[in-house]
Amino acid sequence: MSPRLWLRRILLWAGAVSVGVAAIVFALGAEFANDLHQRMVSVSVLLPFVVGPAGLAFVVWATRRFFAGSQGSGIPQTIAALGVSDDKLRDKLLSPKVAIGKFFLTIVALLSGASVGREGPTVQIGASIMHALGRLTRFSRIEAERGLILAGGAAGVAAAFNTPLAGVVFAIEEMSRSFESRTSGTVMTAVIVAGIVSLWWLGDYTYFGSTSAVLAGAGAWIPVLLCGVVGGFAGGAFSQFLIMCSRGIPGRIGKYAGEHPILFAAYCGFALALIGAISGGTTYGTGYHEARNIMEGTGDLPNAFGILKMFAIISYMSGIPGGVFAPSLAIGVGIGHNLSTLVPYAPAGAVIVLGMVAYFAGVVQAPVTAFVIVIEMTDNHDMIVPLMAASLLATGCSRIVCRRPLYKALADQFVQRFQVSNKGSEPPR
Q1: How confident is the model at residue 429 (pLDDT cuts 50, 70, 90)?
Q2: What is the pLDDT of residue 425?
Q3: What is the pLDDT of residue 248?
Q4: I need a labelling partner for 293 at 20 to 30 A (CA). Which of 84, 129, 395, 428 fits?
Q5: Which domains does the chain have, with CATH numbers?
Q6: Model pTM?
């Protein structure tokens, strides 16, 4: 009944509500940007060739000029903030200024047609809100430096995907790689409150639609093996390429990107418009609607959607803010759709879900998070065992191609670059 303890609880609840509201507003803004870009495409297929280069060039300019540290997914920055002991560095990674820049610049990137997601940025925004809360109160050191950051990131995942359980698992498996008893209550409270806000505002919806398809019979494990191997190697190659690009694109292209980052971003925007034109406009944005159409068997999408969406990785090469969660899930849906033709005896919906979880697990190398997120998003609990098996197999295959988990590798690079920038060098790209 201590007044001080109740003050901390109230502030924690208020922070969790703020994370939930921010995630919902971010989701609505991202959907508005996606819809507006689709309207541009419907007016003229040539508009993306103007809006894309101009938009990405502006986002990179604003990121480098005003919001250094907001580029990329946002999850690596949050992981880096958990692992550093330098308060100044942590404040730079999770500052309100960076969170605001992440919010608006990601929406502008989506409006420009970039193939990015909002979930990773939501994690950094949520962690920034809770970190700011910790600075205003007298929480203990471990709560302020780990518990609140973990709670903010987990609450961001829960509210962004409308998947409370996935938020907890994500905090355990991906962001902290451990679960400390002193932070568990903080994480659980934030996730539950943020989840309640999301359910109250948006209702109990399934993120990528729903499917009741299941695997049965002796041949049921063939699709699991097929999707696990193909999705795992493809996801691992995707992650390895992202890590390589984050270190600096090799060759003349990388040299030009370093010397002329804004012009390079404009060229990336032009390339995205070209890919979008080839795909019939399906590779722009997050990929939510396209994945839902494939999952539910509605809409007319190209057979090469998954491959073309993967080529849209050029969005991340440009140096703009944006996540890889949603695009990776959409790519996995496309790969699963292609693989379903190789096993015609299996329900296409089941193979598509396996492709989604396998590719996503291959990218993030967090198998439990992958299958929990997919189960909660598709509301198909009858596929738990096949999804778990495909996720574990894909993670193993991914590690053959990409030795280090994507977010951990990117987090280490963020720390190194910020340390260099503090010594008077150029700010990190």
Answers
A1: very low
A2: 45
A3: 79
A4: 395
A5: 3-202 (1.10.3080.10), 218-413 (1.10.3080.10)
A6: 0.85
